[in-house]
Amino acid sequence: MLVTSPAFKDNAARALESPGLQKALDRAKGGFLSKRGAAVAGLPEFERLRDIGRDIKNHTLQHLDFYLEEYEAKVQGAGGHVHWCHTADDARRAVLEICRRAGARTVTKGKSMISEELGINDHLEAHGIQPVETDLGEYILQLRNEPPSHIIGPAFHLNREDWEESFRASHTDLPKDRVFHERRDILTEARSRLRDKFLVADVGITGANFLVAETGSSVIVTNEGNGDLTQTLPRVHIVLASIEKVVPTLEDCTSLLRLLARSATGQDFSVYTTFSTGVRREGDLDGPEEYHVILVDAGRSNMVGTDFQDMLRCIRCSACMNHCPVYGVVGGHAYGWVYPGPMGSVLTPTLVGVDKAGHLPNASTFCGRCESVCPVKIPLPKLMRHWREREFERHLTPSAIRANLGLWAWFAMRPSLYRMATRAATGVLGLLGRGKGSFRTLPLAGGWTAGRDLPVPQGGTFMAQYKRRQRGARP
């Protein structure tokens, strides 16, 4: 497991200096926002639906053991198998054993963030089994040997010319006059290469957006047909899912599906919403002979009953990162692990440790947009504050920051002295910055000005302005 989150600042600096990445971010991020806005405006009950989604997930988490056992019983009743995996190593072993029993040489895969977390591709390759990503974005990233940079748009960071370059480097038989001017050109090339892979695959691996305890079904939501081909054509279907994906009933699942597509892509529903339940039955035209569900804990159960339980409500829609001003300028790879953006800033420290990912909860403006658009109302800024508190308590923050916070706290506990000091600082900075909008450099503030400008104070301190406005408001 490669975690580069400790290098977030360096990663972000490189991202800001990358013209190709900045071009891709500028082009793509606006579409997510406008489409989501239109979809939400077209559903008057959307806010009420957010409350329902939050309550469904809270109820499920309060009774998680019960619903997981119900789900297992229904899967077994439909001829399937459930594998309980406490750690990532357990999950990797389970997948490999199933593939070996099936005599698999080629495995097709649908898009799955939990498979990225587990490093399934590398594990299979190390044991002589070829995994083939079938999602269009994941396929190009596999050719480039890159991780996803976005949950639902894994190749969010690439431009059309990057796709063409990668195809020509990997598909060496491409005619020189082949063009890739349109999206359909890219789709056609990928489909032509993947068609044979679907037909020869011995095992298909998908993720799951939801697991339905009532029926034992796994649900995938995609805008491409690759997910259906991955789980119906091979003899063996493996579902990879973390334990919080379970929901009680089909009705609950439908409510969450109404939130998911609108929040993710601005669609009422994705093009494909597919329910899979067990093995092929008599009379079925297609489906697997074996159906396996790998239920992965990997630290999730440790979150239940803690300050971070709310994070387990996440339905992986990516609305938080689509609206995040930090993600919008540095992209997903800067976050250094599987989960980027605000949700990653909470989840990554939980799963890999705040000692490795402490920069992430600090990489936030706390503007609150992530919480305001979250379809299940996860209080992401509050959870990031909890991680900042724990980082401080464990003395993981730099000594200079701790010393400066201690100095600020000393003044803050002495209100008269604090007001005097802030008036003096505001006045001095105002004089030094007269005629300027901001400081590009400033003594004793190099940590700030190294990455951003410092605005020149205007209008006095907050307390002084507040008092003036209060006096003006009196009758």
TrEMBL record:
<keyword id="KW-0479">Metal-binding</keyword>
<keyword id="KW-0813">Transport</keyword>
<protein>
    <submittedName>
        <fullName>LutB/LldF family L-lactate oxidation iron-sulfur protein</fullName>
    </submittedName>
</protein>
<dbReference type="InterPro" id="IPR009051">
    <property type="entry name" value="Helical_ferredxn"/>
</dbReference>
<dbReference type="Pfam" id="PF11870">
    <property type="entry name" value="LutB_C"/>
</dbReference>
<keyword id="KW-0004">4Fe-4S</keyword>
<keyword id="KW-0411">Iron-sulfur</keyword>
<keyword id="KW-0408">Iron</keyword>
<dbReference type="InterPro" id="IPR024569">
    <property type="entry name" value="LutB_C"/>
</dbReference>
<keyword id="KW-0677">Repeat</keyword>
<dbReference type="InterPro" id="IPR004452">
    <property type="entry name" value="LutB/LldF"/>
</dbReference>
<dbReference type="Pfam" id="PF13183">
    <property type="entry name" value="Fer4_8"/>
</dbReference>
<feature type="domain" description="4Fe-4S ferredoxin-type">
    <location>
        <begin position="305"/>
        <end position="335"/>
    </location>
</feature>
<dbReference type="InterPro" id="IPR037171">
    <property type="entry name" value="NagB/RpiA_transferase-like"/>
</dbReference>
<keyword id="KW-0249">Electron transport</keyword>
<dbReference type="InterPro" id="IPR017900">
    <property type="entry name" value="4Fe4S_Fe_S_CS"/>
</dbReference>
<dbReference type="Pfam" id="PF02589">
    <property type="entry name" value="LUD_dom"/>
</dbReference>
<dbReference type="InterPro" id="IPR003741">
    <property type="entry name" value="LUD_dom"/>
</dbReference>
<dbReference type="InterPro" id="IPR024185">
    <property type="entry name" value="FTHF_cligase-like_sf"/>
</dbReference>
<dbReference type="InterPro" id="IPR017896">
    <property type="entry name" value="4Fe4S_Fe-S-bd"/>
</dbReference>
